[in-house]
Design brief:
Length: 204
């Protein structure tokens, strides 16, 4: 009889302990369940708070330009066949030069040599290359073809008439006006006749 009562007492204590353990588990489960939900909600809010393209807009000031560059500015320009077509702008050099009535002094002067012309032209070659560089759409875009400069040297050594043949994309950006200003300032020795000279530049 004593053994039966002792067994019943142990069983009661074990059952009471099991109920107490179940109560403690049910009290902590909601808090544990809420923690992942709160984290998920926070993560969801962080994702929605970050707008698309934020890095792209912030790159403009970092580059030191002082403005937000368009997305396509870093890419080379796309040139069509019409942009690359070569066109000539300037004066008509096929007309004969104006003759003076008094040519007594001119008869004693010889025609300018190519070395004499090259010497004066090379002094402004850097300025002409700068004109070509400024007429390009940008530094990355490759413009094939060539720029051909033709001008007339008068007997007095001044330049009268300038013609520039180049791709349309360069002419559109003011190439002819820039080169005409440079070539028009050239001064050559006096000669017995006027001369038309041509200088081609290959684009690279």
């Amino acid at each position: 009889m004593k053994g039966f009562l002792l067994g019943l007492l142990v069983a009661g204590l074990a059952f009471g302990g099991y109920l107490a353990w179940q109560h403690m588990q049910s009290a902590t489960s909601p808090a544990a369940a809420k923690a992942p939900d709160a984290g998920a909600a926070t993560a969801g809010k962080r994702t929605r708070r970050r707008p698309r393209g934020a890095r792209r807009v912030a790159r403009g000031p970092a580059a030191g330009d002082g403005f937000v560059a368009p997305e396509s500015e870093a890419e080379p320009a796309r040139l069509s066949a019409a942009d690359l077509r070569s066109v000539a702008m300037g004066d008509d050099l096929s007309t004969p030069d104006v003759l003076r009535l008094d040519m007594s002094n001119d008869q004693e002067l010889a025609e300018l040599s190519q070395d004499q012309i090259d010497e004066r032209f090379r002094s402004q070659e850097g300025a002409i290359l700068e004109c070509i560089a400024r007429a390009r759409p940008d530094l990355e875009t490759y413009v094939p073809g060539r720029v051909t400069i033709k001008f007339r040297i008068q007997r007095a050594g001044t330049v009268r008439g300038v013609r520039v043949e180049a791709p349309v994309v360069l002419q559109r950006n003011g190439l002819f006006g820039c080169i005409k200003g440079v070539v028009g300032r050239l001064r050559f020795p006096s000669a017995g006749t006027s001369q038309i000279v041509t200088y081609p530049f290959t684009l690279s």
